[in-house]
Design brief:
CATH class of the largest domain: Alpha Beta
Shape: globular
Mean pLDDT: 80
Radius of gyration: 21 Å
Keywords: Chromatin regulator, Methyltransferase, Nucleus, S-adenosyl-L-methionine, Transferase
Catalytic activity: L-lysyl(79)-[histone H3] + 3 S-adenosyl-L-methionine = N(6),N(6),N(6)-trimethyl-L-lysyl(79)-[histone H3] + 3 S-adenosyl-L-homocysteine + 3 H(+)
CATH architecture of the largest domain: 3-Layer(aba) Sandwich
Low-confidence stretches: 14-19, 265-291, 302-306
GO molecular function: histone H3K79 trimethyltransferase activity
Order of helices and strands: HEEHHHEHEHEHEHEEEHHHH
Number of strands: 9
Family: Belongs to the class I-like SAM-binding methyltransferase superfamily. DOT1 family.
Helix content: 25-40%
Largest sheet: 7 strands, mixed
Strand content: 5-15%
CATH topology of the largest domain: Rossmann fold
Enzyme class: transferase
CATH superfamily of the largest domain: Vaccinia Virus protein VP39
Structural class: alpha/beta
């Protein structure tokens, strides 16, 4: 008897599932796995579909890796999660069922995984309904995330963006940076498997780096976990980027005020800049200042002030 059948026997009576609110982590893992196995009925065909060493090389982030990320970044009910290159959509349904996100969305360009994603959506919703569990609204789009029709959704609405860019080629990465990431609003969080700027550093702005994406990014590496992804047994780091446009404004303030330039290597005085510590902190989703979580502490330990 597998895990799903054991849970079914334990928590069902006369064919009716016990009604509860949201699924526990263990139940959600079982539901996501079962839904995936039913939806992706030919995994070999899925793997053969992708061209090796191309930007569409397929690889899955594990359930435990995303769960750990959800815990670290403290998602709230005002967050909108978007997965760019969402494959069959398993991260989207996990986010919908296992976080407080307001809504979740995936965008996938390839035909076959998009077909599987439609099946996964049906299977996931059916199982969540059977167990009487709630989930947040989610959608999975078939299309190119660089298409203009998705621009507003990504640039103006998303607060958390996931990009498994581990195998992305340079031309695609360049388009992502210039057309999307450089346009994101202050405080937007980006999760990726390759960093878009050096991690755990201040990424101090200079005249040479003024036009580089690193001038508006703070980057740290997530805590490592075992077996974070499907495409290798080796460790694959995941990175959190936070769009921080305040430091760009500070650069121009200091550039125009010699007294402020002297303070760049030290601690600014309380009235030395119109951007105070509280103003430069990425705002919490409910508009209030929260206690420092582990991720914020790690950012600040590396000299990154949010």
């Amino acid at each position: 008897m597998n895990g799903f059948d054991q849970y079914l026997k334990k928590h069902s009576k006369n064919g009716e599932a016990i009604k509860e609110d949201y699924a526990s982590s263990d139940l959600l893992r079982t539901i996501c796995t079962r839904a995936y196995n039913r939806a992706v009925d030919d995994e070999k065909k899925l793997n053969r579909h992708y061209e090796a060493f191309s930007s569409q090389t397929y690889g899955e982030t594990s359930y435990e890796r995303l769960r750990s990320i959800i815990e670290e970044i403290e998602i709230t009910e005002s967050d909108f999660f978007v997965d760019l290159g969402s494959g069959v959509g398993q991260l989207v349904v996990q986010m919908a069922g296992g976080s407080k996100v307001k809504r979740a969305c995936g965008i996938e360009i390839a035909d076959l995984p998009s077909d599987f994603a439609k099946k996964l959506e049906i299977e996931f919703k059916g199982m969540m309904k059977w167990f009487g569990r709630k989930y947040r609204p989610f959608t999975i789009h078939h299309g190119d995330f660089l298409d203009e029709k998705f621009r507003s959704l990504i640039v103006n609405e998303a607060t958390i963006i996931f990009i498994n860019n581990y195998a992305f080629q340079a031309d695609l990465e360049s388009k992502i940076k210039s057309k999307l990431l450089s346009e994101l609003k202050h405080g937007t969080r980006i999760i990726s498997t390759k960093p878009y700027a050096p991690a755990n550093k201040k990424n101090q702005i200079t005249q040479r780096t003024l036009g580089d994406l690193s001038s508006i990014l703070d980057v740290v590496e997530f805590k490592k976990i075992a077996n974070p992804c499907s495409w290798t047994s080796n460790d694959v780091p995941y990175y959190l980027h936070v769009i921080n446009r305040v430091k760009l404004a500070k650069f121009f303030e200091e550039k125009n005020d010699p007294a402020l330039r002297l303070e760049r290597s030290g601690t600014p005085s309380s009235n030395s800049s119109s951007f105070s510590r509280e103003q430069s902190r990425v705002p919490s989703r409910n508009g209030t200042s929260n206690h420092k979580n582990d991720m914020v502490q790690r950012l600040e330990e590396n000299g990154i002030k949010l």
